[in-house]
Design a protein that fits this description.
It is a single chain. The protein is of the alpha/beta class. 28% of the residues lie in helices and 18% in strands. It contains 17 helices and 23 strands. The strands form six sheets. The chain has an eight-stranded parallel β-sheet with strand order 13-12-10-5-2-1-15-14. Strands 16-17-18-23-20 form a five-stranded antiparallel β-sheet. The protein has a three-stranded antiparallel β-sheet with strand order 6-9-8, with no helix packed on it. A hairpin with an 8-residue loop joins β21 and β22. α6 runs parallel beside α8, α12 runs parallel beside α16 and α13 runs antiparallel to α14. Bound molecules: 1-deoxynojirimycin. The site of 1-deoxynojirimycin has 9 residues, from loops.
């Protein structure tokens, strides 16, 4: 690949990625836990939906303290998920349907049950001790707080030594300053590519470089600690590691990579994506976290408007103009359901879910769909903290109370943002345990699954599922697919509740409008052009003449989407 055209036309540019949380997708052996043969058995559903890549959250051997993001053997599959042979079969069966597999690469930390860490604890002089971050000390060397609460330093039993962890104590961070460790990781990545995977989602990659001065930070909570991200994330020098990682494996193998890149400012996003970037593309979280305050007031909900959301999306697109493709998502396994977050009281209105889906999906970039999003699933409110499984939700509950909230308020906060909202078992049918398993599932089914499930929606042409299927076909195989894949994007002025953008390519100009609230809206169309509504949700919207010969006006119903083609 040499000239600019090739740079902007990578092999993966028209993929549609579907994210699977293996524990909750389909159980095949009746233990209440989803597994790899279960995923294989549902490939026809995924192929029918039209997705072309599956991102599997970690399937590696793990004690599951953080549901697989604590890996004890990078080259083995967790027994509850199946075997390596099961994974080979999934890769082959997916390939037969034109679907590629992405694995979740956790390179910032391992499990404390990984052989390397067990050896490092047993013998401070062994090679593997240098794979982790240890400090000789009798007190924790810094006051940084892990992402899941508590100090980042954990005492080594029987020695005046501490080890570092950005997440749970059972997830010790790897020492990227050590070249020998980095080599070990590159070997693992090559091993998986040789096995037939097409690429990776890369976990917590902005955490691999820590401030080597190990400063004491200004506390930002009553625990006297400060967020680890302030000195353990996006630190100067990370570019050296990321460049090496790209050159040693990703660029050489030509695989697709999408990085989890929280906290990367808009003006640095271009370094993370595109032909010259470290990764194919990167998840930016500013729009996903629009509703929560960062820093010491993380538990405070922020008011936001549709215009704020539009602004964040526009800035993300602008950051990658002429550089590459964004990774477009509204949900994942760490976020609440997008319907509840962005649609508020209209969360369970299928028309609202459709317009939200079309709005993010039709932007320039690679669309990611998280399991259940295509059904219009909403948050699952739990009545007691005992119903949660997620390590981070349980920590946040305790911390909210220490910060002065009542138990009731703490539960409300956790319910709104808990990662368990999207981790509930996939509702295939309305029967007992939702067709997910014939055994009680590891995490309770959602309340609404008897109504909102794949089988019910498959039989309904007006369902959110039918809509997503049509949307994928329209965006990737319809008459306007070239423009919607390769075309530029420019956000347009619009009324406060509407997000509007123009997709344009050499042959075509498409103005796309999405009304995200419950009031009708009127959008003046471009002046001096002939227009035609080429796609819409609900009954066709009206286009009426503007007053005094001014531009025609598009009348959108509540929660309606429409695409207008301009003939210039
Ligand atoms: C980000 C993952 O998405 C999340 O689920 C996990 O807990 C942390 N990284 C730690 O690996």
């Amino acid at each position: 690949m040499s000239d600019t055209t090739d740079k902007m036309s990578p092999w993966w540019k028209d993929e549609v990625v579907y994210q699977i949380y293996p524990r909750s997708f389909q159980d095949s052996n009746g233990d209440g836990i989803g597994d790899i043969p279960g995923i294989t058995s549902r490939l026809d559903y995924l192929s029918d939906l039209g997705v072309t890549m599956l991102w599997l959250c970690p399937i590696f051997a793990s004690p599951m303290v953080d549901n697989g993001y604590d890996i004890s053997d990078y080259r083995a599959v967790a027994p509850e998920f199946g075997t390596l042979e099961d994974l080979d079969e999934l890769i082959a069966e997916a390939k037969a349907r034109g679907i590629k597999i992405l694995l979740d690469l956790v390179l910032n930390h391992t499990s404390d049950q990984h052989e390397w860490f067990k050896r490092a604890l047993a013998d401070p002089t062994c090679t593997e001790h240098g794979y982790y971050i240890f400090k000789q000390a009798s007190e924790p060397p810094t006051n940084w707080r892990t992402a899941f609460g508590g100090n980042v330093w954990e005492k080594v039993p029987g020695r005046d030594e501490f080890y570092f962890h950005s997440f749970a104590p059972q997830q010790p961070d790897l020492n990227w300053e050590n070249p020998a460790l980095r080599e070990k990781l590159y070997e693992i990545i090559d091993w998986w590519l040789d096995r037939g995977v097409s690429g990776f989602r890369i976990d917590a990659i902005t955490s691999i470089k820590k401030n080597q001065a190990w400063p004491i930070l200004e506390p930002d909570g009553v625990d006297g600690l400060a967020k680890v991200s302030k000195a353990g994330s996006n630190q100067p020098g990370i570019e050296v590691f990321l460049t090496e990682l790209k050159q040693r494996v990703f660029a050489r193998r030509g695989c697709f990579t999408v990085a989890e890149a929280p906290g990367v400012p808009f003006d640095q996003l271009a370094q993370f994506a595109g032909y010259d970037g470290y990764f194919s593309c990167a998840f930016d979280f500013k729009a996903a976290d629009i509703d929560i305050a960062s820093g010491s007031e993380w538990f405070r909900r922020l008011p936001w408007t549709v215009a704020d959301l539009r602004d964040l999306l526009a800035r993300q697109q602008e950051a990658l103009r002429g550089i590459g493709f964004t990774a477009n998502f509204i949900e994942n396994h760490d976020q609440p359901r997008a319907t509840t977050k962005y649609l508020l009281e209209a969360a369970d209105d299928p028309e609202a879910a459709k317009t939200l889906g079309a709005m993010y999906f039709l932007q320039r970039g690679i669309p990611f769909v998280y399991q259940g999003q295509e059904l219009g699933m909403v948050n699952f409110e739990r009545a007691s903290i005992d119903e949660f499984d997620d390590v981070s939700s349980i920590d946040q509950y305790g911390r909210s109370m220490k910060e002065g909230r009542t138990a009731e308020e703490a539960l409300r906060i956790v319910n709104l943002r808990s990662r368990d909202n999207t981790r509930t078992p996939f509702p295939w049918t309305g029967e007992r345990y939702g067709g997910f398993s014939d055994h009680e599932p590891w995490l309770g089914m959602t309340e609404e699954f008897p109504k909102v499930n794949a089988s019910a929606e498959q039989g309904d042409p007006e369902s959110v599922l039918a809509f997503y299927k049509g949307l994928i076909a329209f965006a990737r195989h319809g008459e306007h697919a070239a423009c919607l894949t390769d075309g530029e994007i420019d956000f347009l002025q619009s009324s406060p509740n509407v997000i509007a953008y123009r997709r344009s390519s050499a042959g075509e100009v498409l103005d796309c409008y999405f009304n995200l609230r419950g009031e009708a809206a009127e959008e003046p169309l471009a002046e001096g052009t002939a227009t035609e509504v080429v796609w819409h949700t609900q009954d066709a919207p009206e286009v009426v003449a503007g007053a005094d010969g001014s531009a025609p006006v598009l009348r959108l119903r509540p929660y309606q989407s429409a695409i207008v083609r301009l003939t210039v």
